[in-house]
Design goal:
This protein is an alpha/beta fold. It has 2 domains: 17-243, Spore Coat Polysaccharide Biosynthesis Protein SpsA, Chain A; 250-408, 2-Layer Sandwich (60s Ribosomal Protein L30, Chain: A), CATH 3.30.1330. Helix content is 32%, strand content 27%. It has 13 helices and 18 strands. The strands form 5 sheets. Strands 5-4-1-6-10-7-11 form a 7-stranded mixed sheet, sandwiched between helices. Strands 15-12-18-16-17 form a 5-stranded mixed sheet. A two-stranded antiparallel ribbon has the order 2-3. β2 (42-43) and β3 form a beta hairpin. It is elongated.
Length: 414
């Protein structure tokens, strides 16, 4: 196998760089709880693996990204990447029995059009920084193998068999191994094949594979925030971090209000906040007449200064006859996202004598959160009667008032 200097026959002004994302793990904790493997878990509305893929596709020096997945996870992977489309994103390949075998499968999949350099990265490390990728690629211009790690800053103790401190280990020159780990393609592919030929298994990272082949591995600091998401606490901290970053990027806070009312008529139930409630009346309207979601949609559009629900979904348009009102809410959230903004909080008050909202409140909050792409703790749903007064008190109709708080990035000149 030729070295990195000649491993790609394609002429290029710079070395070609491929990324292998190791995503074939199942995770014992996930299997026990019935949750999907952690690389497919949602992190503020986006699967972890999708965020990791985007981190590398966002770097101009990356030519190809290849995910190595468990053979049973093809549907999970397809759903995770969704509409993500980039010619540099290659179809995934199935992994092996352990990490070492999965990495070899990824390297083999690249062999037909071998890159100069390959970066091997854990799919559950979505916070890799662009400057860390820069440093790995730059170092591969003079090194065969580069390990992105973190210097150890805590005091390290070695325990004896009984769990007592056996010794204090000097922490100078100690590092925690992380990823990406970068290599010249020819050398790391040959090293992996050599171990496989000798039936040597259980090597836990690719830097160790390179070491066993006799290569020196250069350590570079990849940043302490390049964490591997493993535990529930890791995911909670990651969500807090992403939320803080998103809010800081959108300092323009705006509040919008919405109000809607629909007439009641004989029927079998009403839809409120996306939840159908059996009742002896129904709400009259062109769509499903979900008065609560109509008010919330108007609140978001009002905060955006983008008209109202009637402007974007006129009742004269037959396309919306009987439509689920979550379609309108999702469109308002899409308009907000296109402006670079986010929905920070929403609150809906339903004014009705009947049916009772209380038993359905949590289902309503969950339905709004799902349609809006926010966490349920950012959704409020309340209900009140009109004490027998007015049209609501006479059970002639149901009204709703909604408030939406949005955040937008500052535009030039603000």
């Amino acid at each position: 196998m030729p070295s990195s200097a000649t491993s790609s026959s394609r002429p290029s002004a710079r070395p070609t760089v491929a990324v292998i994302l190791v995503a074939a793990g199942r995770g014992a904790r996930a299997a026990l709880t019935g949750a999907p493997p952690k690389q497919y878990r949602q992190l503020l509305g986006r699967p972890v693996i999708a965020r990791t893929i985007e981190a590398f596709l966002g770097h101009p020096g990356i030519d190809r990204v290849l995910s190595v997945i468990h053979p049973d996870d093809r549907d999970l992977y397809t759903a995770a990447i969704g509409s993500l489309s980039d010619p540099r994103l290659l179809p995934p390949v199935p992994g092996g029995a352990d990490r070492q075998a999965s990495c070899l499968a990824g390297l083999a999949a690249l062999a037909a059009d071998a890159p100069d350099y390959v970066l091997i990265h854990d799919a559950v490390r979505p916070f890799i920084r662009q400057d860390a990728i820069d440093r790995v690629i730059e170092a591969l211009g003079r090194e065969v193998a580069v390990l992105c790690g973190v210097p150890v800053i805590d005091t390290v103790k070695r325990a004896d068999a009984a769990g007592y401190v056996d010794e204090t280990v000097p922490r100078d020159r100690l590092w925690r191994a992380a990823t990406p780990q970068g290599f010249r393609y020819g050398e790391i592919a040959a090293a992996h094949r050599a171990l496989a030929a000798r039936n040597i298994t259980g090597v836990t990272d690719d830097a160790a594979v390179a070491e066993l082949a006799g290569h020196r591995v250069l350590l570079i600091d990849g940043g302490a925030d390049n964490i591997k998401l493993t535990t529930t606490e890791d995911f909670e901290m990651a969500e807090q971090r992403l939320t803080t970053e998103a809010f800081l990027a959108c300092p323009d806070v705006r509040v919008g209000t919405g109000y809607d009312v629909h007439v009641l008529e004989p029927g079998d139930g009403v839809t409120l906040c996306g939840v159908f409630i059996p009742h002896d009346q129904r709400l009259k309207g062109h769509s499903d007449a979900d008065v609560a979601l109509h008010a919330l949609t108007d609140a978001i559009l009002g905060a955006l200064g983008d008209g109202d629900i009637g402007k974007h979904f006129p009742p004269s348009d037959e396309r919306w006859r009987g439509a689920a009102s979550k379609v309108f809410l999702k469109d308002a959230v899409r308009r907000l996202a296109e402006r670079g903004g986010l929905l920070a909080h929403c609150d809906v008050t339903i004014i009705a004598e009947a049916p009772k909202v209380g038993p359905h409140r949590e289902a309503m909050r969950a339905a709004i959160a799902e349609a809006s792409g926010i966490t349920i703790d950012r959704v409020g749903v309340k209900a009140t009667t009109n004490e027998g007064l007015g049209f609501a008190g006479r059970r002639e109709g149901i009204a709703a008032i909604a408030t939406a708080t949005i955040r937008l990035p500052l535009v030039s000149g603000q």
